[in-house]
Predict the 3D structure of the following.
Amino acid sequence: MKSRCNTMGRNLGIVLGVLAATGIWQGCRDQQKGPEPVFRHDLSEGPRPWNSEAFEPTETDFTFAIISDLNGGERPGVFSRAVAQLNQLDPTFVLSVGDLIDGGTEDELQLQKEWDFFDARADKLQMPFFHLGGNHDLTNVKMREFWARRYGPRYYHFVFDNVLFLMIDSEDYTEDRMQEIYQARDSAIRILDGELEGSYPESTYYRMPERNLGGMGSEQLTYFREVLQQYPDVRWTFLLMHKPLWLRNDGMSLSRDVAPLEALETALEGRKYTVINGHFHRFSHRKRNGMDYMILGTTGGSQVEGDSTAFDHVSLVRMGETPVITHLRMDGILQAEGHLPPAQDPPRP
């Protein structure tokens, strides 16, 4: 069981490395059990894409959770219920794979309202939450700039208890290409909404590989190669992203000659790692290079009726010698009385 401290609430033991500097915070030493968790990153200034560094002390293993897509087509109350359920499950921290807001706009006031609404719910988690962007969160250049001011880098890494986490931006295009995708997407949405004549399957956006497969620039690739060189001896590596940068085709109509993650997979040879993404709103799992690659379902995003792989869930990862991954359907996480927690959102800003 995790130790608690009555006088200080949620107690932590953490070694935080920022570049070459190391700081130590420890509370309630006499009540703490197990080794101190280790959390290291390289962000020395500016905003950070997580909301807390107050981790509970762990034992010989630790557990973290992952949420999947809230958007597009968010269903009210689902994420608020997931927050309550995660507080019941009490992981050490929570990760995301993007599509946290509806987005798709250059209106900064609207973006402020949407992110305020998301964070009002995420901040009710009783453990740190790590942001990662998807296509709804990083649709255009202005949204990138908004993200940078609020959360800092779009891609980053951290180490916790000698486990390496690579938080990858799958909307990593040149500004010109991002604008082309944004304009094509906007036209396609207007066709779907009946504002423009045309057929969505014949639209420019529908035929763009980036629509389902994403992109990753050379600067980001170099960054993560250097991170892997910096941490050659971690016990496990997790790669999280929104779109499947490891796929050459989406199994439907889109394909490309080379998947961006293939170059990073070469650098991962000889390591133990797991790859996790979202975007499709349908759960799937496969082995690739002998490792687990999984696409998560939803945590509030739209679903195709009748699709058995489309369900709301949170994923728990217990990190011992190897990760034990459990996907928990939200409709089965009940309170002591046998009821689901309320699905009630706070008022929108």
About this structure: The longest strand covers residues 313-319. The chain has a mean pLDDT of 90. Helices lie at 78-89, 108-122, 141-151, 175-192, 210-213, 218-230, 262-267.
